[in-house]
């Protein structure tokens, strides 16, 4: 019997859908991030980019007056397979967060987590 994969995440993720736009070499796409943390996000897509690919991400956090422009790299990919219950997509690790953006993301995740726990 196989053991479940080890969780290597440094920060807790919040499962919440947020529209994202992202750009990589030669393409500009829009999809939904299905979870987010101050360290990265998971983009739900049936056409994930290869692991290691650099991406520019644009996300609009609720309550923010302007979209956040972030840089990341694809850290993992989950391929579509209709035989198992896995959400297809790619985990993107942020690579350029300054302290201000990191604090804003952390505050958003904590605020939303608190609101969801109350509901």
Structural class label: alpha+beta
How far the N terminus sits from the C terminus, by CA atoms, comes to 38 Å
How are strands sequenced across the largest beta sheet?
Answer: 1-2-3-6-5-4
How many DSSP H or I helices? 1
Instruction: Give the low-pLDDT segments.
Output: 1-7
| Beta-strand residue fraction | 35-45%
For the record, the CATH architecture stands as Beta Barrel
CATH class: Mainly Beta
Counted up, domains total: 1
Give a short summary of the structure:
With 119 residues, the protein is α+β, with helices and mostly antiparallel strands. It contains one helix and six strands.
Task: Please tell me about this protein's structure.
By secondary structure, this protein is α+β, with helices and mostly antiparallel strands. It has one domain (14-118): Thrombin, subunit H, CATH 2.40.10.220. It has one helix spanning 99-118, and strands at residues 14-24, 27-36, 40-44, 54-59, 68-78, 89-94. The protein has a 6-stranded antiparallel barrel. A hairpin with a 2-residue loop joins strand 1 (14-24) and strand 2 (27-36). The longest helix has 20 residues, at 99-118.
């Amino acid at each position: 019997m196989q053991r479940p994969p080890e969780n290597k995440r440094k920060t807790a993720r919040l499962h919440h859908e947020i529209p994202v736009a992202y750009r990589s070499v030669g393409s500009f796409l829009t999809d939904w991030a299905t979870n987010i943390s101050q360290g990265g996000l998971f983009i739900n897509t049936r056409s994930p980019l290869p692991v290691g690919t650099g991406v520019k991400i644009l996300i609009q956090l609720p309550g923010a007056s302007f979209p956040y422009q972030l840089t990341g790299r694809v850290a993992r990919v989950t391929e579509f397979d209709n035989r198992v219950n896995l959400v297809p997509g790619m985990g993107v690790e942020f690579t350029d967060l300054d302290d201000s953006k990191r604090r804003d993301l952390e505050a958003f995740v904590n605020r939303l987590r608190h609101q969801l726990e109350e509901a």
